[in-house]
Amino acid sequence: MADILDMRGITKRFGPVTALRDVNLTVRAGEIHALVGENGAGKSTLMKVLSGVYPAGSYEGSIVYDGEVRHFRGINDTEALGMVIIHQELALIPLLSIAENIFLANPPGRFGVIDRDAVHARAKALLAKVGLHESPDTLVTDIGVGKQQLVEIAKALSKQVRLLILDEPTASLNERDSAALLDLLVEFRAGGIASILISHKLNEVTRVADRVTVLRDGRTVETVDCRTAPIEEDHIIRRMVDRDLDSRFPDHAPQIGEEVFRVEDWSVDHPQHPGRQVVRGVSFHVRRGEIVGIAGLMGAGRTEFAMSVFGRSYGRDIRGRAFMDGKPVDLSTVPRAIAAGLAYVTEDRKQLGLILGEDIRKNVTLANLGGVSRSTVIDDMRELAVADDYRGRMRIRCSSVYQESGNLSGGNQQKVVLSKWLFSGPEVLILDEPTRGIDVGAKYEIYQIINALADSGKGVVVISSEMPELLGLCDRICVMNEGAFVGEFSRAEASQEKIMRSIMRKAEQP
Amino acid sequence: MSDISVTPIAKPGQSGFLKANLRQYGMLLSLFAIMLFFEVATNGTLLRPLNLTNLVLQNSYIAVMALGMLLVIVTGHIDLSVGSVAGFIGALAAVMMVQYQIPFVPAALACLLAGGLIGAAQGYWVAYFKIPSFIVTLAGMLVFRGLMLAVLSGQSVGPFPVSFQRLSSGFLPDLSEAGGFRWSSMLLGVLLALALVYANVRNRARREKHGVEAEPFGFFAAKNALVLAAVCGLTYQIVSYRGLPNVLVIMAVLIALYAFVTTRTTVGRQIYAVGGNEKAAKLSGIGTERLTFLTFVNMGVLAALAGLIFAARLNTATPKAGVGFELDTIAACFIGGASAYGGVGQVTGAIIGAFIMGVMNNGMSILGIGIDYQQVIKGLVLLGAVCADVYNQKR
Questions:
Q1: Are residues A302 and A378 both part of a single domain?
Q2: Which residue in chain A has the smallest CA separation from B3?
Q3: Looking at the complex, does the CB of residue B276 fall below 8 Å from at least one CB of chain A?
Q4: Is the residue at A420 inside a domain?
Q5: Does position A91 have pLDDT exceeding 60, yes or no?
Q6: A331 and A369 in a common domain
Q7: Which residue of A has its CA nearest to B7?
Q8: Would you say residue A444 lies in a domain?
């Protein structure tokens, strides 16, 4: 079989960070090619390079598609050649009909006047092809996620697709819808349409894929042919996580004390979809001086769990009990959660952590203005002293604490957010992806700060998608998947393989 | 770890400092330049005692509302209803005082309370139901304009009792009027100027004690000399007409209060935080909804006060009262450097903005420019001021 796509030596850098390093990917005409790897392995970046989201010239390497070297400059270039990518977050417009969505970019018609009958008829034919029995006039918002996924595929078919790229298409589908979708891919394969399937669910991969390419840390690890020999899931998992744990973590001897914080039977519903549980009956505790990690894939419910605990900042219909030092506490609002001794350092520091337009000083004191004021009048010199103190302790690199926090680097911004929460005087800190988007040097400093926090007798919870980070930092690691805790490992037991396996195993069970 | 290298801030020279703080002083300089221009163009009419007093009286209600509007804009909202609310409250006051003969004090208090309730009614939808303030207050604008017509039955109601008229047309009684000059009123102005300078000096000393970079001394001295001269000079001119207008005193107290609250208190800081990043503020334990609600309540009270001042000034409540006030008020805030995206803006800026508009109105009227071109020029000034601000920020 001829290759429809051949990506050679793709290297993509974002400033000093190399996201992809010499990646190779070959897709044969009419095959289903699975692309697997951890969060941050570079799957999405690779697909963005392929589809022209990162235009030719912004990366190194070559893309040969359909026998010719291509320099894609945007989605339009790739779609014109029959390459369609369907993202995890569907790109449908909810209040337009199915037919209107399918022909959104280039509706049939003349002189900009849409031929409604043609739209309807063609949409109907396409829907039949993907096995969706809905009227083309139904609004997209009125059908479920599984059917929306099919609409996306119908939309791709309308563009004479020859290479279909699906980014975790089954992540939000139930088993029946997933199976139907995979069957569709198999059907397409018979019709000569090749697919790239990005998935975390290895059972799906082994079921339909002809070949599997494993990415790890921005490199191609291996491409396995599943048709010559049956593929072993364990083998793939090993290749996904097989890396050395180097000395990127400061040494730390934990001094673990009494339990400081506990939640029991914590359940949370999705804020927009009542009845859809995002966190299911989680019980969890952390002791003084202990660093507990929460591992899991994106969308596992880790952030949702943390935010719902922190003053019900996420979700609705939150049930469960919380205890601080063994006594029940009320965490129903953020001020109450702060008063109870909880702090939550967000994963999204620009949107949820900082006021980017304000200076460092004002950000540091924001969660504890009472600490720098007397009867609601702010003592600006005391505030300055506090900010300067944290600037020194956290080694925030800045011209002065009057510098706008929006002008700081990611690592320094994170230190400002950490300072804010330390100044609020918490007993338990929940750090959500504390080193996301931060360079290696600053990461090390953040790790030191985390260790120091634990040593000062606080309970620390670290949510991270970087497994080496959890292994290097945490005294205990809980694994979360699909809203539930599915495994727990002590520092001695934990390994990347074990964690990955407990995530994957769970993912395979409906 | 890599060693820390913190570059010390380069000590900016006099001109460097001015450049860095252009945004802060730019508005004041603009007001100064505009006043200077009209003073020359009108052959000195602008700063004559009579005209200066009128200038204060004419713009007092816009300035009062700008205080509330600034807070609303800083939280990232807008209030289009203030003109209608001011008119409605004026009508309410007229009906209470003229038709029902309720005494001035209880009637005025009832009006302020009504303003607060109106603000609460609108703020409730904005803060707790997340309905865009533009829509809620647009509805309010129509509702209260209509209610005002209903209350007045389409007629003008007046005149007001003399005690109420004093609110706008009264002057501070003088204790020692010797030789035809109101010495005690003048003294009040001088004391105010000295107090301002004293506060500046004390603040500077405190900052220096804590080793905080202060502005260059020459600049500091010049600034204070200017403040002293401007306050004393304007007081002298105003006092030599009929004394200090009551409204001016009310305004000065309110400006001082709001400047203090916004810059020095936790509530003020929280309001800016809500406008700067509402989600981050909420996650930091700030009651964002409550604060938004309260800024609208505050706006309602100030709109009511402005309505009273305006009604007292006209000595009658007319169906036309308050038309277009919201636009002048909003323009004052934006000219004064507030950001339409929220989180940025200063009380002093909004007041300066109000007086830039006022001086331009007044100056152009004296020059005999028609109401048609006055509007054109005011519109262009608003656009220009905001463009200059955006340009300055991008640099």
A1: no
A2: A395
A3: yes
A4: yes
A5: yes
A6: no
A7: A399
A8: no
How close, in Å, is residue A314 to chain B by CA atoms? 11
Q: Which two tokens stand for residue A336?
A: 């109450």
In-domain check, residue A17 = yes
Q: Report the DSSP beta bridge partners of residue A432.
A: A463
Tokens representing residue B372 in the block: 């048609």
Per residue in B107-118, pLDDT (tens digit) is 999 999 999 999
Q: B283–A420: do the CB atoms touch at under 8 Å?
A: no
- The lowest-confidence range among A335-349, B292-306, B377-391 is B377-391
| E strands in A37-119 | 60-65, 68-70, 83-86, 109-110, 113-114
Contact yes or no for A378 and B265 at CB 8 A: yes
CB B94 within 8 A of CB B157: yes
Query: In this predicted complex, what is the ipTM?
Result: 0.86
- Give the mean model confidence (pLDDT) for residues B123-144: 96
Question: Nearest-CA residue of chain B relative to A343?
Answer: B284
Q: Are residues A357 and A334 in the same domain?
A: no
Residue A479 near residue A499 (C-beta atoms within 8 A): yes
Q: Is A321 helix (H, G, I), strand (E, B) or coil?
A: strand
A301 and A355 share one domain? no
Give the helix/strand (H/E) hosting A75.
helix A75-80
Number of domains forming the structure of chain A: 3
pLDDT at A188 exceeding the cut of 50: yes
Chain A positions touching B6 (Cβ under 8 A) are 397-399
User: Using one digit for the tens of pLDDT, what is the confidence trace for A381-411?
Assistant: 899 999 999 999 998 888 888 888 988 888 8
Put simply, the answer to whether B280 touches A355 (Cβ < 8 Å) is: yes
Inter-chain residue contact A356 with B7, CB threshold 8 Å = no
A445 part of a folded domain:
no
Helices B246-264 and B266-276 meet at what angle, rounded to 10? Answer: 70
Q: Which residues of A touch B344 (CB under 8 A)?
A: 357
A352 touching chain B per CB within 8 A = yes
- Considering the domain architecture, whether residues A79 and A112 belong to the same structural domain is answered as yes
**Cα atoms in the Cβ-side hemisphere of radius 13 Å centred on A354:** 26
* A431 pLDDT above the threshold of 70: yes
Mean pLDDT confidence for B40-61: 91
CB distance from A440 to chain B under 8 Å?
Answer: no
Q: What is the pLDDT of residue B11?
A: 41
Pair A206, A70 in one domain: yes
Q: Is the CB of A380 less than 8 angstroms away from the CB of B264?
A: yes
CATH of the domain at A57: 3.40.50.300
Residues in A touching B207 (Cβ below 8 Å): 381
Which of chain B's residues have a Cβ under 8 Å away from the Cβ of A370? 266
**To probe the interface with B, which of A303, A332, A334, A389 has the most B CB atoms within 10 Å?**
A334
What pLDDT is recorded for position B394? 66
Which residue from A minimizes the CA distance to B270? A366
Rounded CA separation A360/A344 (Å): 18
Contact A310 B283 (CB under 8 A): yes
Whole-number Å distance between alpha carbons of B243 and A404: 46
All residues of chain B having their beta carbon less than 8 Å from the beta carbon of residue A314 are none
Q: pLDDT per residue over B228-258, tens digit each?
A: 998 899 999 888 888 889 999 999 999 999 9
Print the domain residue range for A314. Answer: 257-341+427-439+459-510
Q: How many CB pairs under 8 A join A and B?
A: 93
Please tell me the predicted confidence (pLDDT) of residue B20: 58
Question: Residue A128: in which H helix or E strand, if any?
Answer: helix A116-130
Round to whole Å and give the CA distance between A149 and A86: 9
